[in-house]
Amino acid sequence: MKASNAPTTARPSVSRKHVIVLTSSAAVLYVLIEMVSGFSAIVTARVVGSPAVAGLGPAIVFGLAGMTSVPAGWLSDRVGRRPLLSGGFFIGGLGALAAGLSMGTQTVLWLWAAWILTGMGIGILRLLKAAAADLYPPQARTRGIGVVQTGALLGAYLGMAVATGRSPQATMRMLADPWFLVAILWIMGMIGTWGLLRPDPIQMAHAWETDQDVPHRSVLPRTGHRRIGAILLAISVIYGVMVMDMALAGEVLKQMGAGSRTIMIVMAVHFTGMFGPMRWAGGWATRTPRPRMALMGAVAMIAATATMAIVSLTPLTISISLFVVGVGWCIAWMAGLGELAEAVPPRERGTIMGMADFGSDIVAAIITLFGGVTLAHYHLTGLVILGVSAGGIAMGTIAWGWPTRRAKISADPI
Question: Coiled coil located at which positions (predicted)?
Answer without folding.
Answer: none
